[in-house]
């Protein structure tokens, strides 16, 4: 592991590694298979499901950025979550997950638990009594998502890892919302970090990908074995694209954050905006923990429309600089209605239990000029306010 700063690692990863032509940027190895030099001699790479130089360059970079011993780059973030469950969790094992986790994570854990693959319990991880009760059940794995989606709740990772360790539970953190630039869960005590690299790490909304990073060498080897066994690894072309996106991760995160600060200030004085959910707000219950464990507050924010659903519909329709779409973390700004989009797999009761209201909107603040973003919000709020 190098002693370089994160931005340097992200920019320089694989640079000047080509020994054949001295290409500064590492080439893309689009090959499914590799030749053996002679019978009985197994080469470093034999088949791209098990190993590919382009994918490995990305995996090594992400492991280094997160401070892990190794990583497996998967075909999507969900595959990384499934890989961890397949590799480590058996029918008698219990997973403790947050009740407001990513909708796809909820669906995956819930569906596989219903099939008898493992047991799962969804709890409010910001409630110490609920966490203590869950730990008493001797879980095998605690799944953490902080900040959570879409309400940006914050879990104290260091504290949770310390208590989890006493019961022998492993801790995995989905770090998609902040990226290693703003939060490094392994340094806080986590055993695994997962990303949907689809989001900030690739950052350009043109690749679906994921990664599972292990703290220890032992887990890294076990996970790599399972990734090959179940066929969870990502395509070389996607890894090449993601490596390209990764190089600008640090400056992008700074700009995403700066733009979101300006948008928050605007939303706070907008009468059609109800509750705002963002850890930078001093009244946010996770504000102090976020200050302690994060290097920034991130650029995802949610808010409730104070008016009715008719106003919400007009507001969303009139926006020009925010595309109505799922996903996040790209250069372009997006707006999402979690209740009918990302979280529709959750029943109304499960949504209510997670505090997810139908009036909630989630923004992924992009890299457009913030003055244009604010002007766009303003004109859409004005049109919405004309609706009775
Ligand atoms: C998108 C997302 C996932 C799932 O990743 P995919 O790449 O879409 O499979 C998991 N967790 C979080 C927090 C996400 O935003």
TrEMBL record:
<dbReference type="Pfam" id="PF01053">
    <property type="entry name" value="Cys_Met_Meta_PP"/>
</dbReference>
<feature type="modified residue" description="N6-(pyridoxal phosphate)lysine">
    <location>
        <position position="199"/>
    </location>
</feature>
<dbReference type="InterPro" id="IPR011821">
    <property type="entry name" value="O_succ_thio_ly"/>
</dbReference>
<dbReference type="InterPro" id="IPR054542">
    <property type="entry name" value="Cys_met_metab_PP"/>
</dbReference>
<dbReference type="GO" id="GO:0019346">
    <property type="term" value="P:transsulfuration"/>
</dbReference>
<keyword id="KW-0663">Pyridoxal phosphate</keyword>
<dbReference type="GO" id="GO:0030170">
    <property type="term" value="F:pyridoxal phosphate binding"/>
</dbReference>
<dbReference type="InterPro" id="IPR015421">
    <property type="entry name" value="PyrdxlP-dep_Trfase_major"/>
</dbReference>
<dbReference type="GO" id="GO:0005737">
    <property type="term" value="C:cytoplasm"/>
</dbReference>
<dbReference type="GO" id="GO:0004123">
    <property type="term" value="F:cystathionine gamma-lyase activity"/>
</dbReference>
<comment type="similarity">
    <text>Belongs to the trans-sulfuration enzymes family.</text>
</comment>
<dbReference type="GO" id="GO:0019343">
    <property type="term" value="P:cysteine biosynthetic process via cystathionine"/>
</dbReference>
<keyword id="KW-0456">Lyase</keyword>
<dbReference type="InterPro" id="IPR015422">
    <property type="entry name" value="PyrdxlP-dep_Trfase_small"/>
</dbReference>
<dbReference type="InterPro" id="IPR015424">
    <property type="entry name" value="PyrdxlP-dep_Trfase"/>
</dbReference>
<protein>
    <submittedName>
        <fullName>O-succinylhomoserine (Thiol)-lyase</fullName>
    </submittedName>
</protein>
<dbReference type="GO" id="GO:0003962">
    <property type="term" value="F:cystathionine gamma-synthase activity"/>
</dbReference>
<dbReference type="InterPro" id="IPR000277">
    <property type="entry name" value="Cys/Met-Metab_PyrdxlP-dep_enz"/>
</dbReference>
């Amino acid at each position: 592991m190098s002693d370089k700063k994160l931005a340097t690692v992200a920019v320089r990863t694989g640079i000047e590694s080509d020994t054949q032509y001295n290409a500064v940027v590492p080439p893309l190895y689009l090959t499914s298979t590799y030749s053996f030099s002679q019978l009985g001699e197994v080469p470093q790479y034999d088949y791209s499901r098990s190993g590919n130089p382009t994918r490995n360059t990305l995996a090594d970079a992400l492991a280094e950025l997160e401070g892990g011993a190794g990583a497996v780059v998967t075909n999507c973030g969900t595959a990384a979550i499934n890989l961890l469950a397949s590799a480590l969790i058996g029918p008698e094992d219990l997973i403790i997950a947050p009740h407001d986790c990513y909708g796809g994570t909820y669906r995956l854990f819930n569906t596989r638990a219903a099939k008898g693959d493992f047991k799962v319990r969804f709890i409010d991880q910001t409630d110490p009594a609920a966490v203590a009760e869950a730990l008493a059940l001797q879980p095998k794995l605690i799944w953490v998502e902080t900040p959570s989606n879409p309400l940006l709740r914050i879990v104290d990772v260091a504290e949770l890892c310390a208590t989890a360790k006493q019961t022998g539970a492993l801790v995995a953190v989905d770090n998609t919302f902040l990226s290693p630039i703003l939060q490094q869960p392994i340094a806080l005590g986590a055993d695994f970090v997962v990303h949907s690299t689809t989001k900030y790490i690739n950052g350009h909304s043109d690749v679906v990908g994921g990664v599972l990073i292990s703290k220890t060498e032992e887990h890294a080897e076990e996970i790599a074995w399972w990734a090959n066994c179940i066929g969870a690894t990502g395509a070389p072309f996607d890894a090449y694209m993601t490596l390209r996106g990764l190089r600008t991760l640090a400056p992008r995160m700074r700009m995403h954050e700066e733009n979101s600060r300006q948008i928050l200030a605007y939303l706070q004085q907008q009468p059609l905006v109800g509750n705002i959910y963002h850890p930078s707000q001093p009244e946010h219950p996770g504000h102090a923990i976020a200050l302690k464990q994060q290097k920034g507050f991130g650029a995802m924010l949610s808010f409730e429309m104070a008016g009715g659903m008719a106003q919400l519909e007009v507001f969303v329709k009139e926006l020009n600089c925010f595309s109505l779409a799922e996903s996040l973390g790209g250069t372009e700004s997006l707006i999402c209605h979690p209740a009918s989009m990302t979280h529709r797999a959750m029943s109304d009761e499960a949504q209510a239990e997670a505090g997810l209201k139908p009036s909630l909107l989630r923004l992924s603040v992009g890299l457009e000029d913030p003055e244009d973003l604010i002007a766009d919000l303003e004109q859409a709020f004005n049109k919405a306010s004309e609706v009775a």
